[in-house]
Write a structure and sequence with these properties.
globular; 5 strands; alpha/beta; Nucleotidyltransferase, domain 5
Length: about 170
Amino acid sequence: MRVLGIDCGSEITGYGVVETAANELRCLEAACVRMSPRGPLPTRLERVFVQLARVIELHQPRVVAIEDVFYAVNAKSALKLGHVRGVAMLAAAHYGLEVAEYAPLSIKSAVVGYGRAEKQQVQKMVARLLHLDAPPEPPDVADALAIAICHLHTAATLSRQAAAAR
């Protein structure tokens, strides 16, 4: 299974494509879209859409996994984050992909084993799980990879439970 994880942000949106084969996790691509907070919002959103569309076309993921909105400094920040999440969902829908949403505690628990893990712990564990030479930078990229890993772990667990129920 191949998953595109997206960590939505109004200035940095991280993304990462992770696949599992033979019980091994592998990172196919991981990067971020950086947006100037001074640029026009429609232009920034288009930039996110174009980059995510490129990644989807190149890697053909089965699912897009994103983080649920959980906290914003203020209403304006929440609104900007909502715009980026909407664009990420639009990109997935445009290509007919399922969108899975995960709470931050679930993501950290799936990757680190502790729902209140610090960003550095997530970065180090993502690097370990994906056999990367160094923790992904910026942390938004590690978060996107963690979201994809969370979905892969969740899907594997659900598959095993369904097989056991038969």
